[in-house]
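Progress note, sequence design subtask.
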């Protein structure tokens, strides 16, 4: 027998769906606006006439410019490198650290967990973090180039190695590992499995949803990462190692007025509307990988957060 919906429940659903629709519109609108600005006429873009749909004479010159811009695709490849290698690197030591912290037999386990959570409560701050990155870069330069000059090494590797720690993701993985039944681990040990085999063949397969979720977190943070990538590579003048976000910021600053620093005498693109359309075209192309990958990982998202975020 179908249960009759209560009035309060009906009101709650109406309000909830209303706010969900508003939230969805707010999320989709920037993408539609970027697409419209990419294909709209340059004069319409310059005069801020775009609201939702393309305005003026449609054009594809902005997309053609981006597709033929070698510097943009070099920075794009840098971002792919930082995202792919950085995500793998972060997952490796996050999984190892979470596995160790999930073991009650680990000596000083409570102290290690406290210091891990402590970094979530009290961040070191921008200046100490930047000094830490600089010190790490000098150490890498000494090891690989025999120099203390950070400019002697490819700083993409510094972004990968020095920017991978995330306490929240380690906590999610640790909680997920703690949810694995101890009887399964004991059975594996009786069969002669080593510690690494138990991790690879028991814990990781049983925590795939959480690992996929954490990989998504790491991947998006690397793909969208701008500030520290700019501070690290921009300070050393390594434009060849810029991620795409840093390259776009440089293009926008030089060629458009979005940052308030536009100078028509030094701009590469003379027409402000054309430069703005190109900037939006770069934004659209930069979003494509995340839009393609996210639907395949999204199914693990809610399950992974629930498994890693709740400790029984």
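Output:
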């Amino acid at each position: 027998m179908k249960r009759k919906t209560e009035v309060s429940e009906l009101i709650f659903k109406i309000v909830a769906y209303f706010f969900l629709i508003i939230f969805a519109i707010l999320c989709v609108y920037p993408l539609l606006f970027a697409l419209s600005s990419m294909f709209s006429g340059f004069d319409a873009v310059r005069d801020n006439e775009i609201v939702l749909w393309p305005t003026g004479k449609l054009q594809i010159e902005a997309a053609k410019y981006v597709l033929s811009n070698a510097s943009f695709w070099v920075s794009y490849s840098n971002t792919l490198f930082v995202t792919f290698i950085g995500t793998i690197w972060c997952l490796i030591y996050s999984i190892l650290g979470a596995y160790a912290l999930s073991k009650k037999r680990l000596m000083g386990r409570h102290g290690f967990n406290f210091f891990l959570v402590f970094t979530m409560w009290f961040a070191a701050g921008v200046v100490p973090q930047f000094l830490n990155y600089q010190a790490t870069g000098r150490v890498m330069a000494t090891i690989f180039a025999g120099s203390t000059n950070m400019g002697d090494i490819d700083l993409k590797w510094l972004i990968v190695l020095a920017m991978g720690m995330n306490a929240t993701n380690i906590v999610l993985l640790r909680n997920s590992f703690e949810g694995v039944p101890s009887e399964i681990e004991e059975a594996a040990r009786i069969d002669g499995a080593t510690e690494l085999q138990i991790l690879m063949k028991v814990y990781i397969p049983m925590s795939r949803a959480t690992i996929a979720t954490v990989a998504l977190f790491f991947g998006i943070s690397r793909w969208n990462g701008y500030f520290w990538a700019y501070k690290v590579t921009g300070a050393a003048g390594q434009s060849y190692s810029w991620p795409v976000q840093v390259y776009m910021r440089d293009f926008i600053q030089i060629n458009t007025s979005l940052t308030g620093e536009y100078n028509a005498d030094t701009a590469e693109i003379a027409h402000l509307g054309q430069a703005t359309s190109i900037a939006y075209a770069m934004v659209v192309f930069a979003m494509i990988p995340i839009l393609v990958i996210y639907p395949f990982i999204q199914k693990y998202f809610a399950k992974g957060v629930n498994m890693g975020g709740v400790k029984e």
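The radius of gyration is 24 Å. Work on this subtask will continue into the next period as scheduled.
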